[in-house]
Amino acid sequence: SGYTSYIGKACVPQEVWENLRGDELYLPEAVSELSRTGLEVARDGPQSPEWKANKETEKMISICRDNPEEFKKVLEKEVMVWTGHFDNVSYGHDHPVVKTRSIICMSPLSIAELLMDSKRVKEYNKMSIGRNDEKIFQEGIDTINGEFGHGETKIVCNRTKPPLTKKKFELLTLMHARKLNTEIGEGNGYLVVSRAISGSNVVEVSKDTVRSEILLGVNVLQCIPGQPNKTDLTSITHCYSPAVPKILVGKMQVKGSIGFVNDIRALCD
Predict the structure, then answer these.
(1) Strand partners, 219
(2) Residue 181 and residue 175: Cα distance in Å, rounded?
(3) How far apart (Å, rounded) are the C-alpha atoms in residues 155 and 121?
(4) What is the 3-state secondary structure (H, E, C) of 156-221?
(5) 160 and 147 Cβ atoms separated by less than 8 Å
(6) pLDDT in tens, 47-82
(7) 164-206 pLDDT tens trace
(8) β-strand pairing of 128-138 with 152-160
(9) What is the value of pTM for the model shown?
(10) I want to staple 82 with a disulfide (CB 3.0 to 4.6 A). Which of 99, 136, 148, 212 is the partner?
(11) Residue-level pLDDT at 76
């Protein structure tokens, strides 16, 4: 459809999102654009919102402002959090975008493999009741110049059962992981990006289920020089769930983003 040029951008206009068919991300160039977008948002590039640090993060930054070693120590223990909003013509703009930064005691490739392996989702997502691979475009995170470009790309269906609700949530999402390209200045490490598959061709969910959407999910897994089993992780989460009251959305997304980091950290202990 004529919307392919939008589907890889951070902000997809509401009218475009509502008119998608559901196969716009089935093209390697659309996925490659989405991966560039993910990096740009995570690294405060042109498509990034204006970030506001939460109080704890402001305090952490001021304590270790001129001390890189102290900064690293803080990142190994804590999770820094910023929130922002995409511009107000984009779909989901009234839901905040959350950015976190942390250091995790696992190699970048190990985390990328963990996130892409549907069988292991319950290890770090306590609400998941299972994730299936629905369609695989290309396997192998380290693939270079495959038929579907670089890296691994697939569509997954994740079902979750959050506490305090009778309903189940279902997320149909394109996931893509690849190695960062040092030659064009992306640095050393890996990237995992995700975006909801949405559109007129997408099957409706059953009555007891609510369709939630990951509008943009990004994990930049950066190598730390001299520490092969540690990762400097920047994550971006922008989700839309019609079942969550607006007043709770911000709090829940921040809590979920911090929980994600700590659940992965728990696997390292």
Answers:
(1) 192, 235
(2) 18
(3) 14
(4) EEEEECCCCCCCEEEEEEEEEEEECCHHHCCCCEEEEEEEECCCCCCCCCCCCEEECEEEEEEEEE
(5) no
(6) 999 999 999 999 999 999 889 999 999 999 999 999
(7) 778 899 999 999 999 999 999 999 999 999 999 999 899 888 8
(8) antiparallel
(9) 0.96
(10) 99
(11) 96
Give the 3-state secondary structure of residue 17: helix
Closest CA to 85 of 249, 207, 256, 264: 249
Let me know: does 85 contact 246? Beta carbons within 8 Å: no
Closest residue by Cα to residue 143 from 167, 116, 124, 164: 116
Nearest to 178 by CA among 202, 145, 204, 155: 145
* pLDDT tens by residue, 113-151: 999 999 999 999 988 999 999 999 999 999 999 999 999
Extended strands (E) in the chain: 52-53, 80-84, 97-104, 128-138, 152-160, 168-179, 189-196, 209-211, 213-224, 227-240
- CA dist., res. 57 & res. 72, Å (int): 14
Q: How far apart are CA 141 and CA 109, in angstroms?
A: 9
Q: Report pLDDT for 2.
A: 63
Distance of alpha carbon 74 from alpha carbon 53, whole angstroms: 15
What is the pairing mode between strands 168-179 and 189-196? Answer: antiparallel
Q: What is the pLDDT of residues 29-45, one digit of tens each?
A: 999 999 999 999 999 99
Please measure the distance between the N-terminal and C-terminal CA atoms of the chain and give it in whole angstroms.
47
- One-letter identity of residue 173: T
Tell me how crowded residue 166 is: count the other CB atoms within 10 A of its CB: 6
Counting Cα atoms < 13 Å in the Cβ hemisphere of 238 gives: 28
Cα–Cα distance measured from residue 226 to residue 71, given in angstroms and rounded to the nearest whole number:
17
Mean pLDDT of 234-258: 90
